[in-house]
Amino acid sequence: MSENGSKREETKVVLKKSAEKKWYAVYTFPRAEKQVADRLNEAAIEVFLPLQKTYRVWSDRKKLVEKPLLTSYVFVKLHAKHFPRVYTDNGVVKFVSFEGRPAPIPQEQIDNLRLIVDSDAETEVTFENFAQGDTVEVIRGSLTGLKGELIKIGRANRVIIRVDRLDQNIILKIPKPFLRKLNSQ
Predict the structure, then answer these.
(1) Which parts of the chain have pLDDT scores under 50?
(2) What is residue 180's predicted lDDT score, i.e. its pLDDT?
């Protein structure tokens, strides 16, 4: 009987965990992130839109504005039964999915994003995937034009680049968005 009772308790725990709200990433139309977040928030859906403060310069003025850290993404925390409410929002394109199903985002990743946007760290997002052996070029900053072989990417955006086959490695602190992968010849 105790074994049977234990199985019931395990089933309750499993059911309880599946009934918990989970975070999901929603892909929006370009520049619709804030409007989508506002509308979903008004519909009592928990929303997280990571924003970063940046200066926007026009010909006649300079203004501090908040723009999305991750372009075209809004995060929502909800039960699966509320997916249709999100799908029907005017600016939503789709949920970020894996194997055809909306993919839950771990709470830890949301917490990390919150830490990033709440910090005073300068942040840039890049979609470029670098690998050891890639030929790269610095495209921004004082080292613009420098080309070499990417040997390693370390902590704190430190990269080791082998320059011009001199068999010398130079350790540089270069943000990844400052690098561009060159096609191998």
Answers:
(1) 165-167
(2) 84
Domain architecture of the chain: domains with CATH: 2-118 (3.30.70.940), 135-181 (2.30.30.30)
Residue 101 structure tokens:
């199903």
Indicate the pairing of strand 104-105 with strand 62-68. unpaired
Q: What distance in Å separates the CA atoms of residue 49 and residue 38, rounded to the nearest whole number?
A: 10
* Nearest CA-CA partner of 50 in 33, 63, 27: 33
